[in-house]
Write a structure and sequence with these properties.
This protein has 413 residues and is of the alpha+beta class. 40% of the residues lie in helices and 17% in strands. It is built from 12 helices and 12 strands. The chain has helices spanning 7-13, 27-38, 74-82, 125-139, 145-148, 154-189, 198-225, 236-247, 272-289, 307-311, 336-342, 358-368, and strands at 42-47, 55-60, 63-66, 88-90, 98-103, 111-116, 256-260, 295-305, 314-315, 320-328, 372-377, 385-392. The strands form 2 sheets. It has a 6-stranded antiparallel beta sheet, sandwiched between helices. A 6-stranded mixed beta sheet has the order 7-8-10-12-11-9. Helix 6 runs antiparallel to helix 7, helix 7 runs parallel beside helix 12 (358-368) and helix 9 (272-289) runs antiparallel to helix 12 (358-368). The longest helix is centred in the middle third of the chain and has 36 residues, at 154-189. The chain is elongated. The model is unreliable at 399-413 (pLDDT under 50).
Length: 413
């Protein structure tokens, strides 16, 4: 290479990308050190490349800037990467060209990482592979949580929720028996007391507390059973309609659900029961997050996922034909520190009298049916949150997928 540093020192630097620095304060220093180790004169990250850009980093050996616009070539680079190229070199005056490759953080939208050096030899195959390896490590680097959001691994999350589901099922059975006794004896005692007396009010409250406990154990049962596979065909349009009608009496007067879901959409490989469970939790969360006069918008469309698209969803989504459902609320949005706990902590919640099981149930159902989920915060000055899920078509349900290959020996130009 043309300046201090090179491929050997760049490889030696890579373990530093996995340093435990989850607050994002080390992002700038990591980028500048990475550039110096490789002898580059600049590098950058554009994220995401689908929809409005949220973050554009331009890094040099001694500084990092947040700039408003990505490099002019990004649009054409993305087309080449999506057509099958694994790396793309874009000619830039007085340089060896910018070398680009995809960033695909787990459960996040895709981005692009690029590097640039002074004029010299063309980018070699080894250097192209090095950038791809660096991209895989940046995707999982804790310090880059400030750019992409917290790192969540689908398989590890599935295992944690599976363990929690086993415990939840056993607890729910035992508590059902206890609560049934409490509610039963409260119901037997109430008619024996003078109507309107203080004693009757107390017994009535005991009964209500028991009923709330039963509601919680029902959620535990739902978590326990959510990993069951029921791939019989289901219709998204019917599930949205039924769940909207179910929660409408519980909605604040000014909140409305605006659903744009065509009845002509193909069936998905998920039975009506689990499909309604998934959409019901998402709709209820969106309604509760929306202020008194805001809308909840539900849309659905047919999509064809490529491997990069599929990786952008937490779960088991793979390439192929899917139905994508988006539920958008008009609430204040989700803080980054809250997003880090939504899936990783099964019982985490910010809502009064909730137990934080809704998203855990949604994730397990989708995982079992080879679907996926992604949460997208709103862009300033807008607020709100969009939750996207994908479910494979009933006619195209994929077989059990083999482990993804991190590296392919072929390199595109």
């Amino acid at each position: 290479m043309s300046t201090v540093g090179g491929l050997s020192s760049g490889l030696a630097f890579l373990p530093a990308l996995m340093a435990e620095n989850a607050d994002g304060t080390g992002t700038d220093s990591l980028l500048t050190a990475w550039i110096r180790a490789n002898g580059w004169r600049a590098a950058g990250i554009v994220w995401p490349v689908d929809g409005p850009v949220r973050s554009v980093l331009l890094a040099k050996p001694d500084s990092v800037e947040r700039v408003p616009q990505p490099p002019v070539e990004i649009g054409e680079v993305i087309k080449s990467l999506r057509s099958g190229a694994t790396t793309v070199v874009w000619q830039v005056p007085a340089s060896s060209g910018r070398l680009h490759t995809f960033l695909t953080p787990p459960g996040r939208q895709s981005g692009v990482v690029w590097c640039e050096r002074a004029p010299g030899e063309p980018w070699s195959d080894a250097e192209r592979n090095y950038l791809r390896l660096s991209a895989r490590m940046i995707e999982r680097c804790p310090a880059f949580g400030s750019v992409f959001g917290p790192v969540i691994e689908s398989e590890r999350l599935h295992q944690r929720l599976g363990d929690a589901a086993i415990i939840a099922g056993r607890m729910a059975h035992d508590f059902d028996n206890i609560l049934t006794g409490i509610i039963g004896f409260a119901d037997l005692t109430l008619p024996l007391l003078p109507m309107g007396s203080q004693q009757s009010r107390f017994i009535g409250e005991i009964g209500k507390v028991g009923q709330r406990g039963i509601q919680f154990t029902q959620q535990l049962h739902q978590l326990s059973r959510s990993g069951q596979i029921k791939p019989l065909p289901g219709l998204v349009s019917q599930a949205v309609q039924k769940e909207t009608e179910r929660i409408r009496p519980l909605m604040p007067p000014g909140v409305q659900v605006l659903a744009n879901v065509s009845t002509s959409l193909a069936s998905v490989a998920m039975d009506a029961g689990p499909l309604q469970t998934v959409l019901g939790h998402l709709l209820q969360n969106a309604v509760e997050a929306t202020p008194a006069t805001g809308p909840v918008v539900v849309t659905a469309r047919a999509v064809e996922l490529n491997p990069s698209d599929a990786k952008a969803f937490l779960g088991q989504a793979g390439p192929g034909a899917h139905i994508e459902v988006a539920v958008q609320d008009a609430g204040p949005g989700i803080k980054n520190e809250v997003r880090a706990k939504l899936f990783a902590e099964p019982f985490f919640t910010t809502k009064v009298r909730h137990r934080g099981l809704g998203l855990a149930v949604v994730y397990r159902v989708l995982y079992a049916h080879r679907g996926g989920i992604r949460i997208e915060p709103g862009l300033p000055p807008d607020t709100g949150t969009t939750v996207r899920i994908v479910i494979p078509l009933a006619a195209a349900r994929p077989p059990v997928a083999s482990p993804a290959t991190v590296f392919s020996p072929s390199v595109g130009g």
